[in-house]
Amino acid sequence: xxxxxxxxxxxxxxxxxxxxxxxxxxxxxxxxxxxxxxxxxxxxxxxxxxxxxxxxxxxxxxxxxxxxxxxxxxxxxxxxxxxxxxxxxxxxxxxxxxxxxxxxxxxxxxxxxxxxxxxxxxxxxxxxxxxxxxxxxxxxxxxxxxxxxxxxxxxxxxxxxxxxxxxxxxxxxxxxxx
Length: 178
Known about the structure:
Helix content is 61%, strand content 20%. A 4-stranded antiparallel sheet has the order 1-2-3-4, with helices on one face.
């Protein structure tokens, strides 16, 4: 749940609790409405007022929940676009490094540096020790996985980035010219 939704639910609960307390504590309030409900001419009015209140409260909850869903969808889409762009750019930098004859360690450092630069995050290349052809590390709030592997006679570089529930990735083949 988001803070906005929690606040609205808490406020509504507080208002209903306070209203129930007033209805119970005030001698004339509750018995008066109970007597109104027993009168035939007032019964329909009391039912309509109650139904109107329940419908209005339901409409308020619906609008809050719908607005919250749309806002989180827009946030998720923009986060997805950012991750896709950063992963693609980092994969292209890694591909270029491999094409120039770079080692797996140099390529992974180049990919991580390009990802950090694209995401506008300060990153220290000496904070990562690369052993092998793959690494998983955190850059800012993003988790970045870089893999370099040889498959079917070609090299491939894979960059996956994720944050919260959003994941994006890019896989490029590295085929030398000539």
